[in-house]
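EI: anyone free to look at a 361-residue chain?
SC: sure, send it
EI:
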Amino acid sequence: MTVPAPDPLPPETRRVLETDGPMVAGEHLLLRVEHLARSQPGKARSWGRDLARLQLDDEVMTACARWAGGAALYLGGEVAAAESTLRDAADRFRAAGDPSAADRVRLLLVDLHGERFELDRARRLARRLDRSFRDRGDRERAAAALLNLACAEDAADHVATARDLWRRARRDLAPGSLRRLAADANLAGVAAMEGRFTEAARELSRVASEARTQGLDAFALQAELNLAEVEFNSCQADAALARWQNVIEQARATGHGAVLVTAAVDLAHAELTLGDTSGARRRVEPVLATARDLGLERELVRALCLLATADAAEGSTDGWRRTMLELRGRHHGVQRDLLLVEVAQLDPSCDPGAACRAARR
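SC: here you go
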């Protein structure tokens, strides 16, 4: 006897669908998915795969299921699978005559393009969404488009541009909302870069506390990661190392694989800075497979660059040259330039002219 697969739509969502229609039911489903993804990402990924395959009689509800499934996959770290699912959801909403819902789905695609260092695509989409939402009078979602674009700019080391976008977005974001907390956390990072460490630490502690109160465990852990970086850069190395290790342990215990990878790479960078090359290598090598499996492109590139720098520090030229070739294939110009500048200080065989050109870019 064949046992039927469990229904990806919870009974509560089906009841909302019957009483209030597909869009309200879709909102209900999306909230459940996002909450699960931030607390139990492994379960959320599995649920997201089921939702991505779900076909219902109601085409709008099918689009909502794809939207929720794509969100679960993205928040769970499966970036590649998330993109195709979210594009499918946006196309379905547009075909159903709801361009506003399609644009709401595309907000996540701005973030996704930033995750993949596809900055031009992120810019074009975010600016189009900003105009569309403002034309509809939806200032909060217009601000969300700017917020997501700011994160993409920051990933490409365009910090001043990102700071201005976060400030613009913050004006239209509701106090206490997740997006407002994200803007505040990122502006705290800018404060740290400008040397205002006490202000940055205070703000990040507040953000982490508020996130925990709202049950946003992964977000709180990310704020702790940022706080550890502030401590390290303000000559509190012991406190920072302990905080990073604590985040790794919490992330492992709660199944937050993406946070665990980020924390491990952060800690490895700190160990490399402190001269513990072998320790940094031991720290980061075990998480490379996890970064690849989860589609964490940004963390994978950071890990590869760290290992390449460790190779150069140990007198090996093969490792960092292989990484340079791999980054060229990935079209990560900024990361390649940063790596070249770094290894030029460690390896006399590195072309100084190329390093100078990279530094100027």
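EI: The CA atoms of residues 317 and 349 lie 8 Å apart.
SC: 👍
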